[in-house]
Amino acid sequence: EAGVTQFPSHSVIEKGQTVTLRCDPISGHDNLYWYRRVMGKEIKFLLHFVKESKQDESGMPNNRFLAERTGGTYSTLKVQPAELEDSGVYFCASSQATTDTQYFGPGTRLTVL
Amino acid sequence: AQSVAQPEDQVNVAEGNPLTVKCTYSVSGNPYLFWYVQYPNRGLQFLLKYITGDNLVKGSYGFEAEFNKSQTSFHLKKPSALVSDSALYFCAVRAYDAGNMLTFGGGTRLMVKP
Fold first, then answer.
1. DSSP three-state, residue B111
2. Which pLDDT tens digit goes with each residue over A65-83?
3. C or N terminus of chain A, fewer CB within 10 Å?
4. From residue B98, how far is each of A20, A57, B24, B32, B102 by CA, in Å?
5. How far B46 CA sits from the closest chain A CA (Å)?
C-alpha cells in the first residue's frame, strides 16, 4: 500500500511569488491534515479535511494560505504571495477514521528567498 | 490548550546501551500520546501510541514508551540502542475530546555512537 505522497519535495521561490504544494493521502483515507515546521521549531497544525470539507482550519496563519481538497482525494496548499517567514517543511498526513493514527508524508521543504 | 515538552535537544548514547527520550505533556482530559521518528531526508514515521489500557506500550523497531499519568510523561525507551536508531524523535499529544490536531514537542535528536 502506497503511503502519503507529497510534491514537490523541495521548492525554492522568491518572496512575493506563488507556490502550490500537493498531497496525495493513503487511498481510502477520508481525513487529511496539513502541518508545517518552520525555523526548526515545533511542528504546527494548519488544518484538517474530512473528505472535501474543512473540519478545522484554526492553524492557518493568515489569508495568504489557501487549502483545497476538491473531490475529497488529493489536497493542495497554495501560498500567495509567499513571505520569508513561510520557509519551512510542510507535512501532510492522513488517517482513515478521525480518531485513527495519522500517517505522514515525506514533507515539502519550502525556501522563500 | 495542549502542549508537549521534550526537554533535551539531543541525547547521546553508546550502541548497546539503553536509551530514553523524555516527553511531558499538558492536556485537558484524557490524552492520546504518540511518538514519531524522522530519519534524514525522510518523513515522519509512526512509532507507537498510547490510547488507553496498559501503561507500557510497545512499538516498531524495539521501542517502547511508558505512560505515567501522575507525572504527565510519556518517555520513549529502548533496551539496547543501535547506530541506525540515530534520528529526530517527536512526541505528540491529542486530547481525547478536543479535535484531531496533534500538538508536537520540539523534537529530540538521538545520536547513537558505535
1. strand
2. 999 998 889 999 999 999 9
3. N
4. 30, 14, 19, 11, 10
5. 7
